[in-house]
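Complex 200.
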Amino acid sequence: MTHTKLSAPEALAELKAGHDRFVKAISKHPHSSQQRLNRLVSGQHPLAMVLGCSDSRVPIELLFDVGFGDLFIIRNAGNTCTESSLASIEYGLEALNIDLLVVLGHEGCGAVAAACSEQKSLSPNLSQLVLHIRQELEGGGVPLEPQVAVHRHPELTAQQLIRNSQLVQERVSSGALMIVPACYTFDHGNIEWLEATLSA
Ligand SMILES: [Zn+2]
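Predicted structure with zinc ion bound:
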């Protein structure tokens, strides 16, 4: 990775290359030294944002074989469009001028599975988040089957991010932001890239 600002497609190619190394078990673990971190003290210029799930089996820097300063990451249960994820993404756009956002879902996602089933005993906050995902899936005409839903949820989240943030909408409309939904599959150990959301 260079210090030159990459275009969104170039940044995406970097992420795909890093993920290929991870899949082939030839990760380089770049940018992981104290020296690299020292160079970043004055500021960060990450090549992309990732909205991912909090799930411990989806460690984003490892999956993309990147290190300090490479990714601006937002994580919550179910890689969900919430006020705080939107606010963080808007920071990434305005303050850091990032032009690539990956929405990374994954197979076996507990939040999506909960949204697909009748849950009775969730805490109030969690219940609200799960209901949000359920309504999104229902609104998108997605069958409430976890195996199917995990592959559609990232794309629906991308659409919600656009709908719920004027800034995101403007950047996508003007071509200044590319949003790419993707799904990490445990079975194959790789990321399934979905269609980029290029227009609002
Ligand atoms: Zn998850």
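Residues 146-164 form the longest helix (19 residues).
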